Amino acid sequence: MGNLLGLLDNPMAMGIVSTAILAVALLVLRAILARAIRDNEKLPKEARRRWLVQVRNLFFLLFVLGIVMIWAEELRLFTVSIFAVAVATVIATKELIQCITGTLLRTGSKSFKINDRIEVAGVRGEVIDHNLLTTTVLEVSSHQLTGRAVVLPNSVFLGKPLINESYTHKYVLHSFKVPIKMDSEWSLAEQDLLTAARQECGNYLEDARHHFTRFAKHEGLVSLGVDPRVTVAMPKAGELELVVRVAVPARRKGRVEQAILRRYLVFTAARVAQKEAEKEAAKAAEKETPAAPEAIPASEARKPRSKPNLSRGTTRWRRSRKAAVSPTRHKHRS
What confidence category does residue 235 fall into, taking pLDDT thresholds of 50, 70 and 90? Predict the structure, then answer.
């Protein structure tokens, strides 16, 4: 009994006991709440994941506050010592301080939340977790999950621009480029891409238009156009690109883009096949048609025919005629 009373009179021992009790109590409560959230089938998976992260961060904050309250007296006594090493501590923990500052920036600006798809510092992925120091994303490449988790320090939000691809929630505006040859029939390619985009997006286009109208009204923005568009770009001399912009569901950007490209390739292949068939038909028609007689040039047709030069022949004939007639004349004279 005396040992127990002595333990209660020792502030250090009481602080250790209080800290242990606080930790056990918070761990038990956190486990109970986490199990209740996981077993609640009424909540969607995204909502359950978001609640689990929030509960964990809340209990961590409660634990830190409890530690501060339990050891407040001891912390007060060490204030002078802490102040003496404050500069060294700041230098040694600069990265941690920046991470905490990045967390405050993220929380205050509401730049993203769980399940949003973001891109920062060259990393693109879906947010699955975030805490006081780090943010974890599932990496996305070419609109497909790679299965790799990337842990980003929250300090990256202080110096790098962040892109939130899920800002408009259910539907987003997606753009992609299609390079073509400069000497090709780009106007026909533009029409094929526009037709493919309209056919692929026609099923949900009205729903997307209502969604963007409500979103623009809520955010105080100008209403965004959702009709498919194709514009022409020349990034460099001699290069041509067709830029396609469509409204797509936030989770189906890659699928819609692939579907549009496949339709475009089908249209292009059909056009090429039609041209080849026309060429073959023209060649077959040339073979079946008999060869026409060679036309006489107009200059030759108009040129008058030259008469044969009979002057020399005529003169020789006359001389031979005289020679044959002369003996006969001499006979008559004699």
Answer: confident
Cβ–Cβ under 8 Å, residues 157 and 100 = no
Q: Extract the tokens encoding 66.
A: 């409890």
Instruction: Classify residue 153 as exposed, middle or buried by CB count within 10 Å of its CB (0-12, 13-18, 19+).
Output: middle
Q: Where are the beta strands (DSSP E) in the chain?
A: 117-120, 123-130, 134-141, 144-153, 162-164, 171-180, 229-233, 240-249
65 Cβ contact list (under 8 Å, min separation 6): none
DSSP assignment of 184-224 equals S-HHHHHHHHHHHHHHHHTTTHHHHHHHHHHHHHHHT-PPP
| Closest residue by Cα to residue 135 from 144, 147, 146, 123 | 123
Residue with tokens 């987003």: 172
Q: What is the mean pLDDT of the chain?
A: 82
Mean pLDDT of 123-133: 92
How many whole angstroms separate alpha carbon 48 and alpha carbon 128? 11
Residue type at position 109: S
pTM score above 0.85: no
C-alpha dist (Å) from residue 72 to 12, 24, 65: 12, 20, 10
Category of 233 on φ-ψ map: left (φ > 0), alpha (ψ -120 to 50) or beta = beta
Q: Which residues pair with 224 in a beta bridge?
A: none
C-alpha dist (Å) from residue 247 to 127, 142, 203: 22, 18, 11
Structure tokens at 217: 């009204």
User: Do the beta carbons of residue 232 and residue 186 sit within 8 Å?
Assistant: yes
- Residue 88's CB: how many other CB atoms inside 10 A? 9
110 backbone φψ class: left, alpha, beta (φ>0; ψ -120 to 50): left
Question: Which residue has 């004699």 as its token pair?
Answer: 334
Paired tokens of 243: 């830029």
Distance CA 306, CA 310 (A): 12
Q: Per-residue pLDDT tens for 134-144?
A: 999 999 988 88
